[in-house]
């Protein structure tokens, strides 16, 4: 049950969304986020109900759940809000930490999403170098983020909540060029 | 911007990395037996070559892992990178 006192980190920013066909920024709703470190991905994935077989820097999405492989033995698990307690009850060989409230998610989409991101992200975001399904921790301006290309013109940004207004306002500036 | 090949993630922009000093510095099994001069040598003295240098880097804003790198300190050219714990 969500605590009614809970405030979305971008509550005061989301209202400033400018609708656009070129590039659109949206604050995503709260989610369950777990940080998993394990040497036995097959067993942990089976126990938790996630597919952890992807190569590094690739995400496996199944319905509302997704597993982002961020390191050789590290995954960021995403699930709908409110599932943390049940998932944290699963016994896993390794470390499983509930980081749901550490981050918030921003979605940037549209034909100019790559251009707007590239103002602050040094990664090569060409579809050949950063294809759909690729994900990685990286640097956005002065903030660390996890970037996941969920579709050809859609990216999900996971950012620590105190950095979220900074990332939002940076995107607001770089998107302005295409609005 | 330098492009640094992480052994785990592939080529990445340098702002995802942090430098971490000379590689292959062997830590003694019994540091309590070292005298002050030997300990100072171990802690503070590095080879600091002009040219080819084996060094540690960390992909801190990526996979988070340490790895080793052969870099030329004159040209800044990276010859290659390889996982931590493996020979140059
Ligand atoms: Zn890496």
Give structural attributes.
heterodimer, A: about 180 residues, alpha+beta, Gyrase A, domain 2, 5-stranded antiparallel β-sheet, 4 helices, B: about 90 residues, mainly beta, Folate-binding fold, 4-stranded antiparallel β-sheet, 1 helix, binds zinc ion
Structure notes:
The complex is a heterodimer of chains A (179) and B (88). With 179 residues, chain A is an alpha+beta fold. Chain A has a single domain (20-178), classed as Probable tRNA modification gtpase trme, domain 1 (Gyrase A, domain 2, 2-Layer Sandwich), CATH 3.30.1360. Chain A contains four helices and ten strands. A five-stranded antiparallel beta sheet of chain A has the order 1-7-10-9-8, covered by helices on one side. In chain A, strands 3-4-5-2-6 form a five-stranded antiparallel beta sheet, with no helix packed on it. Chain A starts with 23 loop residues before the first strand and ends with a helix. With 88 residues, chain B is mainly beta. Chain B has one domain (3-25, 32-83): 2-Layer Sandwich (Folate-binding fold). Chain B is built from one helix and six strands. In chain B, the strands form two sheets. Chain B has a four-stranded antiparallel beta sheet, with no helix packed on it. Chain B has a two-stranded antiparallel ribbon with strand order 1-2. At the A-B interface, β8 of A face β2 of B. Zinc ion (ZN) is lined by residues 6, 8-9, 59, 62-63, 65 of chain B.
């Amino acid at each position: 049950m969500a605590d009614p006192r809970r405030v979305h980190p971008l509550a005061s920013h989301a209202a400033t969304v400018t609708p656009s066909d070129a590039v659109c920024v949206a604050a995503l709703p709260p989610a369950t986020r777990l940080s998993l470190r394990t040497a036995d991905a097959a067993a942990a994935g089976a126990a938790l109900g996630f597919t952890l077989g992807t190569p590094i820097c690739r995400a496996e999405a199944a319905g509302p759940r997704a597993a982002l492989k961020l390191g050789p033995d590290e995954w960021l698990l995403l699930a709908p809000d409110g599932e943390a307690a049940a998932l944290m009850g699963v016994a896993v060989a390794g470390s499983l930490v509930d980081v749901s409230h550490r981050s918030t998610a921003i979605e940037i989409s549209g034909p100019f999403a790559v251009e707007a991101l590239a103002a602050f992200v040094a990664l090569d975001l060409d579809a050949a170098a950063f294809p759909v399904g690729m994900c990685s921790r990286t640097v956005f301006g002065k903030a660390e983020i996890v970037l996941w290309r969920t579709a050809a013109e859609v990216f999900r940004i996971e950012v620590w909540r105190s950095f979220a207004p900074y990332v939002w306002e940076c995107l607001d500036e770089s998107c302005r060029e295409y609005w | 911007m330098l492009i640094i090949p992480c052994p785990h993630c592939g080529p990445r922009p340098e702002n995802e990395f942090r430098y971490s000093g000379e590689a292959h510095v062997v830590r003694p099994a019994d540091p309590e037996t070292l005298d002050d001069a030997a300990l100072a040598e171990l802690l503070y003295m590095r080879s600091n070559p002009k040219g080819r240098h084996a060094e540690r880097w960390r992909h801190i804003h990526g996979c988070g892992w340490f790895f080793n790198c052969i870099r030329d300190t004159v040209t800044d050219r990276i010859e290659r990178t390889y996982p931590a714990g493996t020979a140059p």
